[in-house]
Amino acid sequence: xxxxxxxxxxxxxxxxxxxxxxxxxxxxxxxxxxxxxxxxxxxxxxxxxxxxxxxxxxxxxxxxxxxxxxxxxxxxxxxxxxxxxxxxxxxxxxxxxxxxxxxxxxxxxxxxxxxxxxxx
Length: 120
Known about the structure:
Layout: E1 24-27, E2 36-43, E3 48-51, E4 56-61, E5 71-76, E6 79-80, E7 84-88, E8 93-95, E9 97-101, E10 107-111
């Protein structure tokens, strides 16, 4: 990839993602396939998301001070946004997103299969 003045850059190009924080999604590929969770955080520069209860990792932390014991922390690791799909809680089905406009001209996200409006 090339940045300003035609020089190569190591930073990946920022892509617009189809999901936002707070959306309910289903994992569509990988070892966590089929799990449903809410998006806690998005990383648009690397096109990754953190989903609640999915892709759990453990980290062993050494004691920092004398007399302190070590810890084992668990946390959700990011997964690529292309591996998640919007999920309808009512119909229990995953769907792609299309865009519609409301009466007052606002752009809204809508599930293709169910017609459910995602934005409030």
